[in-house]
Amino acid sequence: MRRKLLKVFGGVLLFLAVLLVGGWLAFVPWSKEPGFEFVMAWGEKGGGPGQFDDPTGIAVAGGEVFVADSRNGRIQVFDFDGTFKRQFGEPGESPGALGRPMNLRIANGELYVAEYWNDRIQVFGLDGTPRRIIGSAGSGPGQFNAPGGIAIAPNGDLFVADFYNQRIQQLRADGSFLRQWGTTGEAGIWAGEFNYPTDVVLGPGGVLLVADGYNDRVQRFAPDGGFLGKWGGPFGINIFGPFNGWFATVTSLAVDGKGTVFVADFYNHRIQRFTSDGAFLSAFGEKGTGPGQFSYVTAVAVAGDGTVFAADYGNNRIQKWRSMADQAGP
User: Fold this and answer.
1) Tens of pLDDT along 148-160?
2) Exposed, middle or buried, 251 (CB in 10 Å: 0-12/13-18/19+)?
3) DSSP-derived 3-state class of residue 188
4) In the chain, which end has fewer C-beta atoms inside a 10 angstrom radius, N or C?
5) CA atoms within 13 A on the CB side of 304
């Protein structure tokens, strides 16, 4: 009888082990490509040129890096080696002033800034000249409640992550409302629902990618608005974790020229890379204050040559990375 019980117990343990291994293989993918290596970092806490107080957004264009220096209420501009070039903006609500600038996007020679505190999108020339303001505070069509990120289509349409309104809005270039994803003011975990969305970006073929922040996932939508898929943890339904392909709050997205998606994984202190349909490729970064370590990475941007720049929020600095594949010989 004892031998029989031991046999049954052993069978149960074997079954659980197989189940655990199978679950791991199903939900924790392996790296499929070479990773990235740390190049340099610049910045420290403060209000002077080249200093930051909670950097929250980043964008690159024309050999320059634009940084949303949120609590200093300004945008700082650097070359790719971290040399300060200029700045614009100051804390406030008037045109040209900024209220906690968040994720940035550059399109058609203009910088689009999501203003979390001012509930608007402000557009600047790359030299810092204020050009126009889109939106106002509220929950109606074309209004925002703490917008976090913007994407701009080739025809000028705007896609805005409307954080507290729990939705993504699509607007014409003049700010007039076209449509939205999500139910205003209602959080949810199912397809097409959001839990404080933080950023948006357009991928290959005009596919809309949404950083569904507190759902710890990325969602994909077709140009016609239809839901295409989601990824992040088991089933993409707000299960967070530190494993490959899982997230602990998604705060920023970027897409390179090959369609690779870079995701800022805030509480996991890293950046993860995926194919355009969500297959895991690699990850880089870890928690800390040393070279190549992050303290809550908030934003990511990719230059045309594949160089990656990241806003290292807690360390008040910007980091620069490059692909190890680019360093490999033929």
Assistant:
1) 999 999 999 999 9
2) buried
3) coil
4) C
5) 5
Do residues 267 and 273 touch, judged by C-beta distance below 8 A? no
Tens digit of each residue's pLDDT (9 = 90 or more) over 36-75: 999 999 999 999 999 999 999 999 999 999 999 999 999 9
Can you tell me the distance from the alpha carbon of 308 to that of 310, in angstroms, rounded to the nearest whole number?
Answer: 7
Residue type, 278: G
Separation between Cα atoms, residue 220 and residue 210, nearest integer Å: 6
Within 8 A by CB and 6+ apart from 66, the residues are: 58, 59, 60, 75, 76, 77, 104, 106, 111, 126
Could you give the C-alpha distances from 103 to 16, 198, 310, 314, in angstroms and in order?
Answer: 44, 8, 12, 16
CB atoms within 10 A of CB 108: 9
Q: Which two tokens stand for residue 248?
A: 């602990």
Residue carrying the six token digits 């729990």: 166
Question: Do 167 and 225 form a contact (C-beta atoms < 8 A)?
Answer: no
Residues 160, 296, 103: CA angle, nearest 5 degrees: 20
